[in-house]
Amino acid sequence: MANTDVQAAGVADRDLIVRLAFGSMAAQTLRAAVRLGVVELMGDTPRRAADVAGDAGAEPQPMTRLLRALTGLGLLREHAPGTFSVTPAGALLDPGRPDSLTSFVRMFTEPAIVRAWEHLDGSIRTGEVAFDAVFGTDFFSHLAQHPELSADFNAAMSQAVSEAAAALPYAFDFDRFTTVTDVGGGDGTLLAGVLAAHPGLTGTVFDTAQGLAEAPKTMARHGVEERCSLIAGDFFRSVPEGSDLYMMKSVLHDWTDDQAVTILSHCREVLPAGGLVLIVEPVLPEVVDTSAEADVTDGGVTYLSDLNMLVNLGGRERTRRDFEEVCHRAGLSLTSVTPLTDAAPFSLIEAVAGTRKGR
Q1: Which residues of 211-249 are buried (b: 16+ CB within 10 A; e: fewer)?
Q2: pLDDT tens readout for residues 169-205
Q3: Which of 81, 168, 338, 346 is the most exposed place for a label (fewest CB within 10 A)?
């Protein structure tokens, strides 16, 4: 390799490290933009930074610096000195859009989430959940004690599930079932999408009372409230019987393997003959694939999610082999894993009644 090639590779490597080191600053830049309502104030036409600052109750010069940083991140465009417009990506920070990600940004830049990450090295050393040590309680108990934060979390999860809710109804054969229970279904966004696309199906959203807080509005908004019941409970104790399809999205990754087995075991206990458990989660490859075609890496986000589970919740992202193991321990047999193409990096993991491990 020529010396110039070595130097170019060295510069690229250094640039990568610098960009990663600045990652938390980029996240806080997003947080500031959301808290100030920058995108909402800018609207659909180019605006001067001084005018945006005036509407936001901010100083013009710092606002210009913020807008230029957002431009550097690809969220705005600067047409002339101090005059900016919103890019398509930046428009996702407008809370008025149905596909907005403002609540998602608020939640994942929230100090309650970020503080535990300061102790990632300790979690790596011990395997312990950093959040519990920092806040003196587990994540979901902390949410229960802070209603405003809980509402932000529910809104963030609703925004996070919207892409899957649009893709899932057309990626899986729901018509072979009569009724579906969405275990840990939160505000019902995912199930509402399924029911709206399959009028012959009825369903149940099962979650804590806190998790179900916005579900009635979701069902009414989609016009499916007559075909959906809401049941509050604890999936570590039981799940409602009466469905032939039990679905859960982004639930198991919140929990340890033993806890995941408990949740799945309760689904197995009420699963009728011919019934199915459908798990919607990322499935990590056995070896990290960094090729351009490897959608599962999602720019590394899935692996960062795995570490987030470690420091904040105690759960984990899993490989197919990991899912096979927890399913087998719960008396289920994993039959297929299918990428949810229009909602990468998620996959559809299907499991049917099997034999419990050790029996």
Answers
A1: bbbbbeebbeebebbebbebeeeebeeebbeebbbbbbb
A2: 999 999 999 999 999 999 999 999 999 999 999 999 9
A3: 81
Q: Is 253 a catalytic residue?
A: yes
Pairing type for strands 332-339 and 346-353 reads antiparallel
Distance between CA 133 and CA 179 in Å, rounded?
Answer: 41
**Most distant CA pair in the chain, distance:** 72
- Compute the distance between CA of residue 323 and CA of residue 257 in angstroms, rounded to an integer: 9
Q: Left (φ > 0), alpha (ψ -120 to 50) or beta: where does 314 sit?
A: left
Interval 37-49: pLDDT, tens: 999 999 999 999 9
What would the DSSP string read from start to end of 23-44? HHHHHHHHHHHHHHTHHHHHTT
Give the residue among 283, 271, 259 at the shortest CA–CA distance from 336. Answer: 283
Angle CA 113–114–115, to nearest 5:
100
What is the average pLDDT score of the chain? 92
Q: Which residues contact 243 (CB under 8 A, 6 or more apart)?
A: 177, 179, 180, 181, 203, 204, 270, 275
Nearest to 333 by CA among 313, 351, 307, 320: 351
Model confidence pLDDT, tens digit, residues 45-71 = 999 999 999 999 999 999 999 999 999
pLDDT digits (tens, 9 = 90+) for 206-227: 999 999 999 999 999 999 999 9
> What does the DSSP 8-state code read for residue 294?
-
Cβ-proximal residues to 171 (8 Å cutoff; 6+ apart), any chain: 338, 340, 341, 342, 348
Nearest to 93 by CA among 111, 79, 75, 108: 75
Radius of gyration over every alpha carbon of the chain, rounded to an integer in angstroms:
22
Pairing verdict, β 276-284 and 245-249: parallel
Token pair, residue 19, equals: 């960009």
- Per the residue annotation, which of 119, 198, 253, 328 is the catalytic one? 253
- pLDDT tens for 88-145 read 999 999 999 988 999 999 999 999 899 999 999 999 999 999 999 999 999 999 998 9
